[in-house]
Every structure is written in structure tokens, then in C-alpha cells.
Specification:
The chain has ten helices and twelve strands. By secondary structure, the chain is α/β, with parallel strands linked by helices. A hairpin with a 3-residue loop joins strand 8 and strand 9. Helix 5 packs across helix 7. The N terminus is likely disordered.
Amino acid sequence: MSDTPPSEQPGPVLAADPVLAVDIGGTKLAAALVEPGGRVVAHDRVATPNPAEPDAGGLDAEGLWRTLEALLDKLVAGAGDPPLAGVGVGCGGPMTWPAAEVSPLNIPAWRGFPLRARLRDRYPGLPVRIHNDAICVAVGEHWRGAGRGHDNVLGMVVSTGVGGGLILGGRLINGASGNAGHIGHVVVDPGGPPCACGGRGCLEAVARGPGLVAWAREQGWRRADPGPVDGITAGAELAADARRGHPVASAAMRRAGRAIGIAIASATHLCDLDVAAIGGGLSQAGSLLFDPLEEAFRTHARMEFARHVRIVPAALGQTAGLVGAAALVFAQDRYWSDRAAG
């Protein structure tokens, strides 16, 4: 039985109406109005208030919800209050799916927060569709980005974490719990570093930005500015030092590229992919990352069919997750499961 209330049963989407798209992560809350062709026509963002303790400058669950409400209201009002085709959201996980009670690892204020139910109450009668943020990036790249025109695409985000989504036969693959395509927890080094999931040697443990920074520091790399900084900024500084030829920073990029290449080789052997599109902050390192990635992929992708996959940077940049969230509404036949209808 569908969990969709009668007022929200799927129906035709009016081509003229935009989707209110939302991207919820540990560093920012972003929102956009996205047209049916995938064009972002209005966009706004605010920093995610964290941690959960109010006296530390963060907000509790309801305070964070009010921050999101204010962002959405400001965006829609600034665009002239247009009629909406629906609401699409990419949010960090884990979450229950499709009910979207969310517990993002990087947003401690929300644990089991009923995000989909709240948005349904706020936008009655509209389809409200929520998926993992990395899955929305993969959907966006397949719909309007680097994977457009291909039926079998792996989309990846390599940033503070490593996530992904999988499109096979032109349709998003959800899996039993909505977590299919979670390539960040493919094991690339069984003797490697411990992972937050409880395993060891996962791709995320090896290649995520803060993990690379920690590894580089253990090898003697030091930031030029020793002051406090978040993991994203430190990762960008590590990549910049690699471009300047710093041996440890360069080794860190090779370490990440090799791990990603091994993971994509495994995924390609399993899924027979056409394209693997890689986004996120670390992907901006360019050839420093992609050269060792390609080398590792060619070393480990030994089956003839696997050698035809194209590994490319994501094309949509910072808007990929928003475009993918909109596609959950606009292209529901490909990206939204019947059992999750609504």
C-alpha cells in the first residue's frame, strides 16, 4: 500500500511550474527553483547551524527547521510566489526511506526528524520527494549532466564523505532500503583505516577529504596557516600544495585517486556501467586525482566490457544535488519508485 495521502496522489506535472528543490548538508542549506528543463532560476543558501547545543551557536531540531522554513519562504517570495510543481529534497543520511525521517551524521540536531511529513504539512497537495543527497547528485548528472544520454551511470560525491547513486537501464536503483549505490562503503583496502560505519578500509575512510588531511598530517604535512580550519578548507589547501609539488600532498591525492579507481573498477564489473561521474570538492583537484584514478581503474578493470566505461568530472557543479532533487518530481518515471509514490 502506498504511503501517499489522497491529496498527494501522483498526477501530471504542469510543465510551466518550477519545483522547489532543497539540498541539506552539514555545512549549508541550499534551495532553488528549478524549471522542467533543469535550469535553476532562483537560488539561495545559508550556513547550517551546528552543533545541536544552542550555547555553542547551533540550534535544536525545531530551530533548525525554522531556519529551513525561513530560507524556503524567502526564496519563493523573492521569485514572486509562483505555483509549484512539487518539492524535491536531497538530504544527508542515514534516513528511513521513503518516509524520510532523517538523522544526518553531520547534523546532530536532527535525529529521526520527520522531514517529509513536515514538508507535506507545509506544502499540502504537492508531491514531496526526499532522497539521499549523493543519490540526488547522481540523478542530476544522469538527467542533465555528465551522464545524460547514457542508461548506466554511477554518480559519486567525494567531499567530507563519499556517497553515490546508481542508474541502471535508465532508472534509479533504490535497493531494499533506498541505499543502493552507496559506493563509499565498498572496501578498497582491508587493512586500511577504520571507518565511521564500523568497518575498515572503506573508500570513504581512505578518500574523504578530512581522512586525507589526517593521513597527510601523519606523514608530516603542515598547513601554511596553523589556525583552526574545517576539513573542507584543509582539503583544498592539501590539493593546492599538491599542485605546487609538495611530496606528501601529492601522495595524498594519489592515495585518494587509487582508492576511487579500485572502487569504480569493482562497481563496473558488477553493474556494467557506461559512465562514472565524480563530483564533490575533491574532484576539483583535476588531474592530480583523475590521473592516478584512471591508472588504478585500468589496472583493476580487467574484463573487456569494463574497459569501455568513461570516468568524468561531474558537469553540474554545486547545483547537481538541486537539479537531481527536482528530477525526483519532473522525471518521476525514472527516479521515483512506485512503492515510494507521492
